[in-house]
Amino acid sequence: MSARDRSFDVSVQATSERPGYEDPRVTRSRALIMAAAAQVFLERGYPGTSVDDIAAAAGVSKRTVYNVFDDKEQLFRAIMGDAIATAERFSAELAATTAEATDAAAALTSLARELAASVLGGRVVPLRRLLIGEAVRFPEFAAEYYERAPGRVMAAVAVALRAFGERGQLRIDDPELAAEHFAFLAIGASLDRALFRADTDAAGADAALERAERGAAAFLRAYAP
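The structure corresponding to this sequence follows.
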């Protein structure tokens, strides 16, 4: 064992002896490993990725990876857990801001654009592709992701639509169904395209935002009071 790994072992031991505290070196290593693992998983898939690959991409030893994560599966779950946490924060903010809006048309148009930008940008679609590909291997985790990521966002949209309905700004009989209609009108077609196509350029992103706006307009006409 190298001196570096022995030092890291001491850090991990110290962390376990002090609840609520984590050595900054452990925190830095975890961030490096998770960033590298996400990239390698996306490039090679779960079966095609080894801990050696992840360690090399992170610039750390294999021993360091195992000091932070028990195995490749725990690391995969941690990456998806981060994606879930991000979606939960987004849905909480969405519920708080959209439901309080006084102009339903402006709020829903803005929400449609925000959904398109957040879902279709960054790593949301690549990570979703990765999890769909491993749904047979991790069925319970795929179900949890659906409930806590897109499911929570849909629930937050339903809360906002219910508030608009109660204030007479929209005609909402079934908020959950209305939320599904809104989401599919705003980003359904764009999300389908993104899931099956790896190339997303600026023109494609602009087209997705335009479809989101038009989808919101169609929803507002359908649910006008």
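DSSP finds eleven helices and no strands in the chain.
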